């Protein structure tokens, strides 16, 4: 960034005196700044992303935090940006099809190569694309998909079950498991040797409309610059609209509805379709280093033990323009608001007494591209993961006013639930069931990168039961955001937002952090998918202390 531009940016930073406790003053100022057009949507590897890093570092220093990476404020995260120019996806069969990029299909490659081709690859429908030995479920049983194109459904086989939880069905009923996430499905397809893998989009089980697919997976795609240069990934990955998938199945004289219904039962046999798929992708590769920004308040008694607060600073940058011609996805709610919350918590802890443990505040990069910054940190930790007690991730704050309820995404996983419930109850609120567990929200933000390596992390916030308006108004507002603003230019700062609910939520997070910073080691609940990882490092942790 040019020195003059950097100076102007920092001079524009809010000169907010740190208040006692948490207020909406800095929340408004920091969100408005980070979501302004000057940051161009905060895409990693762009000048706007560099501005965000500089701004957050400046604010952390002003609040009195210490550099969190051995004297440095940032951790370099090596990235590669792959810009793909794809041909249409052509399907050969009795009735040939050409699926248009953007309207029928979105496809890309995470292999770091100049060209990737898919040529006359036989198409196989593999149900939900799941291999879960502990559940006796294998959608790839009895079929070899090496060199073939696999097509699968989004979410879990039992996502339409009304109940949610471990007793609601083989895949927790309405609550999505990691097997339901498209990321897992691509990983499994790679393990099976597939040449290409496509997930069939459907708004209800995916949790978002097709517009989110086109805004998120078109244009330059960012990934970690890994040692294998992406060779372990499926050669071609992508999404199909449900309508396009129905046309494909019809072209193979196969009924889409009956076959997808059959895929919901154990023992489903993958079905080769009388089709082949072809496409070619020409790639432009640009390598760069984005940055996680980390500031800490060193612990007074046990500085080697750490509590984490995280929020992602990145967003989509330039994206498809709306009707007004605006092509900047400012990411005000997602997630300038979360970074503002991170800074507000940092201010609260910095102005209070030092705690026994080190408290770290990390703004991570690359969340929108696949949790890249948090994943890199989890793979290259600055502080020992075994001695990281746990923490809270903030991805989207409540800007719609106070709520009577608080929802934990993926609640019921660890001892952090009890800490949260104590703070929530003290506010006169109640913990509500997650309203859309089928969306798999727990697997979609940066706390998951910590969880995957065993560190208990939670996320959540105010639900839809608004103090002013009730659940009808709250649900309407949530639906409106998902439909009209999420990952679109419409997610811009609004001075009329009501931050009172965000302030209450941040006070809950602060209470959790204060409890963790004193001592104790929250554990994953029995049967949880991350418990074994945490248990394996138990000997490295000191005994429980008050």
Summarize the structure.
This protein has 546 residues and is an alpha/beta fold. It contains 15 helices and 22 strands.
How does this model look, in words?
This protein is α/β, with parallel strands linked by helices and 546 residues long. The protein is built from 15 helices and 22 strands. The strands form four sheets. The protein has a 15-stranded mixed beta sheet that branches. The chain has a three-stranded mixed beta sheet with strand order 20-19-22. The longest helix is centred in the middle third of the chain and has 19 residues, at 332-350. The chain is globular. The model is unreliable at 16-20 (pLDDT under 50).
Could you name the key traits of this structure?
single chain; 546 residues; alpha/beta; 15-stranded mixed sheet; 3-stranded mixed sheet; 15 helices; 22 strands
Helix content bin: 25-40%
Q: Which structural category fits the helices and strands?
A: alpha/beta
Sheet with the most strands, sense and barrel status = 15 strands, mixed
Total number of β-strand segments? 22
User: Distance N terminus to C terminus?
Assistant: 47 Å
Count of DSSP H/I helices: 15
Strand content: 15-25%
The overall average pLDDT, rounded, is 92
Shape: globular
Low-confidence stretches: 16-20
Rg, alpha carbons: 23 Å
């Amino acid at each position: 960034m040019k020195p003059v531009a950097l100076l102007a940016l920092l001079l524009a930073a809010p000169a907010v005196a740190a208040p006692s406790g948490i207020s909406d003053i800095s929340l408004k100022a920091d969100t408005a700044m980070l979501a302004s057009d000057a940051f161009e949507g905060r895409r990693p590897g762009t000048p706007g992303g560099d501005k965000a890093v500089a701004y957050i570092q400046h604010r952390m220093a002003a609040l009195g935090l210490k550099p969190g990476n051995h004297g440095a404020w940032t951790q370099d995260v090596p990235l590669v940006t792959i810009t793909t120019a794809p041909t249409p996806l052509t399907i050969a069969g009795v009735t040939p099809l050409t699926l248009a990029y953007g309207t029928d299909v979105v496809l890309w490659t995470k292999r770091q190569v100049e060209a990737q081709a898919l040529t006359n690859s036989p198409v196989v429908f593999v149900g939900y694309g799941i291999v879960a030995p502990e559940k006796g479920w294998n959608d790839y049983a009895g079929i070899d998909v090496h060199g073939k194109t696999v097509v699968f459904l989004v979410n879990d086989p039992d996502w339409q079950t009304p109940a949610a939880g471990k007793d609601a069905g083989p895949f927790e009923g309405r609550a999505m498991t990691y097997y339901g996430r498209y990321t897992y499905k691509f990983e499994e397809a790679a393990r099976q040797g597939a040449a290409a893998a496509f997930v069939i989009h459907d708004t209800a089980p995916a949790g978002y409309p097709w517009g989110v697919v086109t805004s998120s997976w078109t244009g330059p795609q960012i990934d970690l610059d890994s040692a294998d240069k992406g060779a372990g990934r499926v050669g071609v990955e992508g999404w199909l609209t449900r309508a396009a998938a129905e046309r494909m199945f019809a072209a193979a004289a196969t009924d889409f509805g009956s076959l997808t219904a059959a895929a919901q039962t154990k023992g489903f046999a993958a079905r080769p379709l009388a089709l082949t798929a072809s496409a070619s992708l020409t790639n432009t590769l640009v390598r760069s280093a984005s940055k996680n920004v980390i500031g800490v308040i060193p612990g007074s008694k046990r500085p080697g033990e750490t509590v984490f607060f995280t929020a992602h600073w990145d967003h989509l940058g330039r994206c498809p323009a709306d009707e007004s011609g605006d092509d900047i996805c400012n990411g005000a709610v997602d997630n300038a608001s979360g970074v503002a919350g991170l800074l507000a918590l940092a201010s609260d802890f910095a102005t209070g007494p030092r705690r026994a443990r080190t408290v770290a505040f990390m703004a991570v990069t690359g969340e929108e591209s696949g949790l890249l910054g948090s994943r890199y940190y989890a793979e290259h930790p600055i502080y020992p993961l075994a001695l990281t007690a746990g923490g809270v991730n903030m991805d989207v704050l409540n800007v719609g006013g106070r709520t009577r309820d608080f929802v934990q995404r993926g609640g019921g996983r660890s001892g952090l639930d009890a800490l949260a419930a104590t703070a929530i109850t003290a506010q006169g609120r109640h913990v509500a069931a997650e309203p859309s567990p089928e969306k798999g929200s727990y697997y979609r933000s940066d706390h998951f990168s910590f969880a995957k390596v065993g560190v208990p992390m939670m996320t959540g916030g105010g639900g839809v039961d608004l103090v002013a308006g009730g659940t009808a108004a709250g649900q309407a507002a949530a639906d409106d955001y998902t439909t009209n603003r999420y990952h679109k230019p419409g997610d811009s700062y609004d001075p009329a937002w009501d931050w009172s609910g965000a302030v209450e939520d941040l006070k809950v997070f602060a209470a959790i952090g204060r409890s963790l910073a004193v001592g104790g080691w929250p554990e994953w609940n029995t049967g949880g998918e991350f418990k074994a990882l945490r248990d394996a490092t138990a000997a490295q942790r000191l005994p429980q202390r008050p």
